[in-house]
Structure formats: C-alpha cells, structure tokens
Design brief:
Number of strands of chain B: 10
Number of helices of chain B: 9
Number of domains of chain B: 2
Helix content of chain A: over 70%
Number of helices of chain A: 11
Largest sheet of chain B: 6 strands, mixed
Distance between the termini of chain B: 40 Å
Oligomer: heterodimer
Radius of gyration of chain B: 18 Å
CATH superfamily of chain A: MetI-like
Number of strands of chain A: 0
Strand order of the largest sheet of chain B: 6-7-8-3-9-10
Order of helices and strands of chain B: EEEHEEEHHHHEHEHEEHH
Shape of chain B: globular
CATH topology of chain A: MetI-like fold
Distance between the termini of chain A: 20 Å
Structural class of chain B: alpha/beta
Helix content of chain B: 25-40%
CATH superfamily of the largest domain in chain B: P-loop containing nucleotide triphosphate hydrolases
Strand content of chain B: 15-25%
CATH topology of the largest domain in chain B: Rossmann fold
CATH class of the largest domain in chain B: Alpha Beta
CATH architecture of the largest domain in chain B: 3-Layer(aba) Sandwich
Number of domains of chain A: 1
C-alpha cells in the first residue's frame, strides 16, 4: 500500500500550514478577530460543539434533509433515466423540456420553494431533490442506452420478457455507473442542503455556521466549516467503500 | 419429416444494400452444416436470419415447418464474442441459470441442471468463477453450456472458435462434435476456417459476396467419429480441403 506509506509525508504540509496559521495569529497582535481564529481555538470550539451534542444534532438535521432529498430526487432521476434510456423515442420527446429545466440552479428555486413550503425540512428536501435528479437522470440514461448490444441479443434469443430483460440484463449492466451517479448526487445533495441552510433555512450545519458568524464567534464558525468538511469526506469514503465491495469482484 | 431448417428464396436488403440474394437451402435433421465464404459474404447475416434476430425482406425461413418471425427458445445461438455474450456480474453457474430462468425451469430444479450442464462442458470445478476469471476457451464453453440449457433443436454457432488459439480450438471442436452427437441437435456453423468446416461438417456451404449467395454445396464423406490426426490425414479430407481452398481463391479473386 503505497498510499499508507506516503501518508506521513502527505500530512507534513497541512501540519506545517496549521502551525504557521497558529503562529501568525498569536504573533500578529494577539487581538481577537471577527473573521478568523487560531487553529487551537477552532479545535476547542469543535470539541465543545461535539461535547454538548449541538454539532451532532445539526449534522443529523442536515443529513436528514440531504438524504431525504437525495432519495426523492435520486429515485425520480433513476426512474426517468431508465425510461429514457430504454425508450429513445420518449427521451427525444422530453429532451427539450429536460434541457430547459436542467440548467436552472437548484438554489434559484429557494424563493419559490419558500412560498410553497415555508421554512423547514420540506423546503430543503425539495431543493436537494431538484438538484439530485439530474446527475442520476443523465448517467442512468446513458448507462442504460449503452448496454452491450450483444447482451440484448442474448436476451432476445432467450425470449426474455421486458421485465426480466430490464431486471436481469439492463439494470445489472448499468448498475456500476448508476452507483457512480449516486455518489455524485450525494455530494451535490450535501452541498445544496448546506447552501439552503446558509441562505434561509433555520436548521442544520449551514444555519449553525451562519449563526456563529453573525454573533461574531469565528472559532465556532470555522469549527462548523471543518466539521462540514469531515461529514462530506466520510460520506464519500463510505460510498466508495460500498462501491468497491459491491462491484469490485467483476469490474 | 420436414427439414428442421429450410430457407426459401430468402433475400435481405438493408438500407438499399443487397446483403443476401435468392438463398434456397434445406438442412437435414441432426446434420452438421458449415458455412464458409470470404468476409462480407453475409455468413453471419445468414445465421442471424435463421436465428430470427433479423427478418428477411423476401422469401421465408422455416424451422420445423413453421415460419421464423422472431427468435425461438429451441434455437440457441453461440456468438463469437463470448466476452460480450456472458453476464460479467454472474458466475458460471449464474450464466447457465439465465437460460434456465428464461425456459421457466423451477428454482429448485436449477442447481442440478446447472451442475449437469457445466459438467458436460468440463466446467464442473468452475461453477463459482466469474467470466473475467476464466480463459477464453472456458468462457466459450460456458456460452455453449448456456445454449445447451435451452435443449435446442437447432444450434447456431457464429465463428465460435475464431478468437481462440489453435490447441484450444481443436479441443473445442471435438467437444462440440461429442456434445451435439449426444443431443441430436441440428447444427449450423459459420466459420472462416476451411479446414474446420471440413473437419466438423456433414455439408459445407460456400457463399459468394455482393450480394451474398450460395455458390457451392459440398457433401463431406468423412467417417465419424472424427479424429484430429487421422481424419485430417485422409485423402478425402485433403481433396476436400483443396476444393474449398480453390473455391475461396476464385471467390476472393
């Protein structure tokens, strides 16, 4: 494992940067700042946030909204992708509609969703769902349309009915790429959830971070920032592990 | 008894291009027919017509006296590109199972059938391997096992050994002869290897290109069972080989 070997050396740069930041903050007057805090203060704020459960509660709120939206939008994108991928005529029929809606930034729908749903989970889940549809739709459609033609012939020669053809040939063939799409969509979901919280929604990590910033507690704000990074990283690592376990054998 | 495979004045035009023209052919039950011809002569297309994967624009293809309008489960196709024709996410057993599932074999009855089929192609020890973990010859054996699972009346083989090395190919030739001898299936075998055609077939059909048409039909009068060394040394084999090579030379000229 060369990756593990290189780890100490790879950690040297971030460690040096942290030390430099700490030193600069302490030597640079030592006064309190409204925007920045030394790494030691951030670490302390992080420990306090984790200790009193506020960070975990906020994480659960954000993850609930992100996962809820991901499931909703992901399922819709998956369904449409399967449909468009297997029935090209349908894909052509809807292509202009899809291409017109897709470029709309999900967060631009915040005002509309706010009118419809008010503050809370439904607002956030609907925005996340909108954002999660597209990677799932686009990847699933191309994965399904790209199924090995020979396998379709095998299915035809065996006279597999449409349901069996989809379930036994098309979906398993496309599944590895669909899972990559799911990973992408999961990343997008977290980004959009935090964005909605920063912008309007009074819950979760994004809201906590904004509150810390507005009450002039930079250490706490940065602690939230670090923690959001950790959550995103863990999410990606976990999904990568699932992907290797599920598809590693034959890919 | 009706011939299991009959083609009556079959023609195929695709996108304004004449692919096959005036194909008349009767293939006897239980016989082994090989099709040879220069590339682009429509050998594979002819096989796909018999399979029902392509429908003719003129004439008709009949199997067992009924017109072919779609693929049939009693007609199995062995494709050349075994690497693409197998499900990479299923084990050897799972790949054979696909055909049994399509045939509506009850789940309880499948394991024994799978064991038997894999045993017949010499893959009994490899039931849990994925295609990517198998050699080319093993993968092609697996595809043959999947086709045998259909208990086919007609076995269509499209250059099945074209991508394999010479030793593997000879081994598989003998295995296929033994397998179809046991099952009594009628075989339609497309190849570009003239010696392979003479070694395997009861009849060798030579196609000419532009448009693809039958130019030669040669009866192979070699004794069975055939033997890789003895058969290939018989004067009749050498004469046949000469005849087919001469045909190909004029066909390509």
């Amino acid at each position: 494992m060369s990756g593990l070997h290189a780890l100490p050396r790879a950690l040297a740069v971030p460690a040096l940067l942290l030390i430099a930041a700490e030193a600069a903050m302490r030597l640079g007057g030592g006064t309190t700042s409204d925007a920045l805090a030394p790494p030691s203060a951030v670490a302390r704020a992080l420990a306090i946030g984790l200790g009193d459960g506020s960070l975990l509660a906020a994480s659960l709120a954000t993850l609930a909204a992100a996962i809820g939206g991901l499931m909703l939008g992901g399922a819709l994108g998956l369904l449409l992708g399967l449909l468009f991928g297997t029935v090209p005529a349908l894909a052509r029929l809807f292509s202009i509609t899809v291409e017109a809606i897709r470029p709309v930034p999900a967060v631009a729908l915040i005002p509309l969703a706010l009118i419809l749903f008010g503050f809370g989970y439904r607002l956030e889940i609907s925005i996340v769902a909108f954002a999660a549809i597209w990677p799932m739709l686009v990847f699933t459609q191309s994965a399904v349309a790209g199924v090995e033609p020979r396998l379709i012939e095998v299915a035809r020669a065996l006279r597999l009915p449409l349901g069996a053809r989809l379930w036994k040939i098309v979906i398993p063939f496309a599944l590895p790429r669909i899972f990559v799409a799911f990973r992408l969509a999961a990343g997008v979901a977290l980004i959009v959830a935090v964005t909605v919280e920063i912008a309007v929604n009074p819950l979760g990590l994004g809201y906590g971070m904004t509150m810390a910033q507005q009450t002039l507690r930079p250490a706490e704000m940065l602690a939230y920032l670090v923690w959001i990074g950790v959550v995103g990283w863990v999410l990606n690592v976990a999904l990568l592990a699932v992907q290797r376990r599920a598809f590693g054998r034959f890919m | 008894m009706t011939a299991p495979i009959a083609l009556r004045n079959v023609g195929l035009t695709l996108g304004g291009k004449r692919i096959l023209d005036g194909i008349d052919l009767e293939i006897a039950r239980g016989s082994f027919t090989c099709v040879v011809g220069p590339s682009g002569c429509g050998k594979t297309t002819l096989l796909r017509l018999v399979a029902g994967l392509v429908l003719p624009t003129e004439g008709e293809v009949q199997i067992g006296g009924t017109r072919v309008v779609a693929p049939r489960r009693d007609v199995a196709v062995v494709f050349q590109d075994y690497g693409r024709a197998l499900l990479p996410w299923r084990t050897a057993a799972g790949n054979v199972s696909l055909a049994l599932e399509a045939m509506g074999v009850a789940p309880r009855a499948r394991p024994a059938r799978i064991r038997d089929l894999l045993g017949r192609v010499g893959l009994a020890e490899h039931a849990d391997k994925f295609p990517a973990q198998m050699s080319g010859g093993m993968q092609q054996r697996l595809q043959i096992a999947r086709c045998l699972a259909q208990q086919p009346e007609v076995l269509l083989m499209d250059e099945p050994f074209g991508a394999l090395d010479a030793m593997t190919r000879q081994g598989l030739q003998d295995e296929v002869l033994a397998l179809v001898g046991d099952s009594g299936a009628t075989v339609f075998f497309v190849t570009h290897d003239l010696e392979e055609a003479a070694y395997l077939g009861d009849v060798v059909i030579g196609l000419l290109p532009h448009p693809g048409r039958i130019a030669r039909q040669v009866a192979v009068k070699l004794p069975r069972p055939r033997d890789q060394l003895a058969t290939r040394e018989l004067p009749e084999f050498l004469r046949l080989r000469r005849e087919l090579f001469d045909f190909m030379r004029t066909a390509e000229a």
